[in-house]
Write a structure and sequence with these properties.
mainly alpha, 11 helices
């Protein structure tokens, strides 16, 4: 009888442990199912969130703010604003006598130039007082150049010097990917084809600096102009004005600017060439 109860106990224990093991497996499977369901649900939630955000972005795209003309997302300065920059810097360089802003009378063409300058400046100057002061100075420059009895001209190097001063007064720094006023001299060259063409369009006297077609040598002014335009181009792109970079620049403008070797030979070194343009 004792053996019988012992056998029954063993069978019962074996059955119980087996049942517990089966229940554990079932519970474990159920928990894993819940976890997987939660993971899938989470994944679906993330995906739906992203897709929803893209849909909202498509219907209401974020507006990028650039310092450009006419409030559009173009990457250049309006031509009239560019002419205004040339005239303004020319007047500053020539130290033309300023007149009271109330006495300034602009013709229609000058008014249109000033209007475009204002558009460009409003995109980069927040202080209304600074803006009004700058516009008054530009208006004075436009009128002063027109009223001047002498010949008013401007080299690219002198333009860059005045441009830097104007930007400093406005509290603005050139930034890569942004168009600031006054733009670089290289912008004027690209817009009008050459520096002399830019001067001519602005009504300024053209410079004799440069090399005529067929002429084999560049004069001192041409070297200065080439270096100044190269430096301005580097600043606008946010890269260093190195000798190697100038070599690449000269290759791209072959025949229009002196070669890198010619520049180093003319000035004695690349550092002296950069120092020559101030």
């Amino acid at each position: 009888m004792g053996r019988s109860w012992k056998g029954i106990a063993i069978v019962a224990w074996t059955t119980l442990t087996t049942l517990i093991a089966v229940i554990a497996v079932i519970v474990d499977s159920f928990v894993m199912s819940l976890i997987m369901a939660g993971s899938v649900g989470g994944l679906l939630f993330v995906v739906s969130s992203v897709m929803g955000q893209r849909a909202r972005s498509a219907s209401n795209p974020r507006k990028m703010t650039w310092m450009t003309d006419s409030g559009t997302e173009k990457s250049h300065t309006a031509s009239l604003a560019l002419l205004g920059a040339l005239l303004h810097c020319a007047a500053r360089d020539a130290e033309l006598s300023p007149r009271a802003s109330s006495a300034v009378e602009l013709d229609r063409a000058e008014q249109e130039i000033l209007a475009e300058v204002e558009v460009a400046l409003r995109n980069q100057v927040q202080d209304e007082r600074v803006l009004k002061k700058a516009l008054a100075e530009v208006a004075d420059s436009l009128s002063s150049v027109r009223a001047s009895d002498g010949v008013v001209s401007l080299t690219a190097a002198k333009y860059e010097k005045q441009r830097t001063a104007v930007l400093s007064e406005l509290g603005i720094a050139s930034a890569k990917g942004a168009s600031v006023w006054p733009p670089t001299s290289q912008t004027a060259v690209q817009r009008f084809g050459s520096w002399n063409e830019a001067l001519k369009t602005a009504g300024l006297a053209t410079s004799s600096v440069g090399r005529a077609r067929g002429q084999l040598r560049f004069d001192a002014g041409a070297y200065e102009k080439a270096i100044a335009e190269f430096v301005a181009d580097c600043e606008s792109r946010g890269v260093g004005a190195t000798y190697k970079a100038y070599g690449e620049y000269a290759a791209e403008h072959k025949g229009q600017v002196p070669s890198a070797a010619a520049v180093r030979k003319f000035y004695g070194s690349w550092s002296k060439a950069l120092a020559a343009i101030g």
